[in-house]
Structure formats: structure tokens, C-alpha cells
Amino acid sequence: RVCVASDDRTRRALAESAIEPCVCVGRCDASTCTCMHAAEEPYDETGRLKGCYLPTGSHPRRGEAVAESDDGVRPAAHRADLPIVECAPGCGCDGTRCANRVVANGVKQRLLVFKTRRRGWGLCARETLEAGTFVCEYAGELLSSADAMARHADNEARHADNYVLTLREHVSEQKVLRTIIDPQRRGNVGRFINHSCDPNLHSQVVRVGSLVP
Prior knowledge:
20% of the residues are buried. The protein is built from 2 helices and 8 strands. The chain has helices at 8-15, 145-158, and strands at residues 4-5, 84-86, 111-115, 121-125, 141-143, 165-170, 176-182, 206-208.
């Protein structure tokens, strides 16, 4: 997993944001693993995010995959006040056995970039996904606020699509941690995920070896 920054200042901040790896042996345990901060394990035994469901009765449109719970109940999602920090390549645990490595292991689902009727390009799964299944990262360049504003203005002037995503995390009453991602020049299939009034995806902040999500 490689992070790309758009300017020298952001590159320096990125270099200083590494998270100290855990020293677990074999499979990590939530009560002792420093990556999980003594929180509950975020993933179940199959690698799906706990508590992430869509209600039953949602019928997928052609080309879409809708994940449903067994009983139609939408339980509370993974606790937002406990950020997910996955184990990284530098951790001592066994990467083939550690249950705290999902995003770090990359995309496992069969995804398709397709042309929509009215909304440009879109992304769909080529098979039905279970609730809580990891689909993909929203990957791109890390931007400073100044670069983000400049790119947005340039896109507006050229009537080009804008892919910039600003993530705001409220770490205290007076402090907001902001991460700005732009996949326009460097990114992955996540850039083709469209907004929807009836969404079937859940976004989740995950950190892998770095304070940068």
C-alpha cells in the first residue's frame, strides 16, 4: 500500500505519520494487539465488517449487488469513536492468520466499471456481496487544502469531473483532522463509485500502518 502526496509539505507529513506495528505472534487478539487498541475486533471470522447491514426488501437493479441481513434489522455499525487500525506488513503477527487484515490484503471482489445511462461511468459488483464485505479503497493523491482548491477551480473552468474527497474526523471539540484525496490523476476503481439516493455501500475509515486513512 503506497500513499502518494501532491506536494513536499504533505509528503513530509505523510512520512511522519507511521503507526508503530504490533508485536503479536501468530493471530492477533483484540485485548492485547496495539493496532486494535484493546477494542473489539472490527471484522468477523469471514473478514466482513461487523454490524454493517442493509435492510431486507431492497431489490438490486440490473448490474448492482445489494447486501442484506438475515432478519432485515439494521444494527448499529462499528463504533465510530473507535477507529479501525489494521495490522500492516511491519507487524509481528502472521499475515495469513491475522483477522485484522482486510483492507491491507486488497480487493478480493469481482468488480466492473460500466457506462450508466445518465451518470457517466459507474462501478458495480459482478456477484452478490454479503453485508459488511470490503469492496475497495477510495485511493488517490493526498492533497493540501491549497492544491485541492486549485484543482477544483481548474475542473470547474474545464467543465471536468471532480473526484476530490474531503474526509473530516472530529478528534475533539476544537480539532478536526482533515484528509483530502484526489483520484483523478492517480487512483483506482473507487473513483467510479457514484452517489446514490438509495445507497448500498457503507464508507468506513481504516488505517493501515499510517495515520493517513
